[in-house]
Amino acid sequence: MKPRLITSKKWTHFPKEYVHQIKQVFNEAFSEQLKGGNLVIEGRIYPEEILLRVGFLEKGRLQQNNFEISMDYSQEKKEAIDRIHDCIDATASMMNEFFISEGAVEFPLVWKDYDFNGKRIWVQHSTINSNLEAEADRLLGITDEHLVKEETETEDTFERAEPTMFSGSKKKKKEDLH
Questions:
Q1: What is the spatial distance between Cα 148 and Cα 145, in angstroms, rounded to a whole number?
Q2: What pTM does this model have?
Q3: Which residue ranges in the chain fall short of pLDDT 70?
């Protein structure tokens, strides 16, 4: 998941009990529509941003429909829980629209702001398969088990890559790979 704010670097996952509760709520609300697939819930808390992704992966498909919501929040006001609830409501609204239109709705592919129940939210839709992304990160050795995580730049992946990946008759530069 990519945060909306460029200042969002350090983050932590939603607490596991929240993820479990969110999954229960969505499974109850969309029980009929979710029968043919898997629900994927991901949430991140950044210093100034709450980010929620609710993904729906139909059985036998690689493409996962992700409904993503971002909201600003203030640590001083201790409003993270309220913003998480707002994100849940907005994501449920997106999913409902998606299922009612049988997938024929076009959500923004980049962050776009909306007024939702008197609050400003940012919405985007993606088709990234969370499980495939996690497996790719694991294979590349870029998984992080720390409680607080930090966003890294793409260049870090090249620096962490096995040296043999770039060995051969001629050593390649990063620029040559683009």
A1: 9
A2: 0.78
A3: 143-178
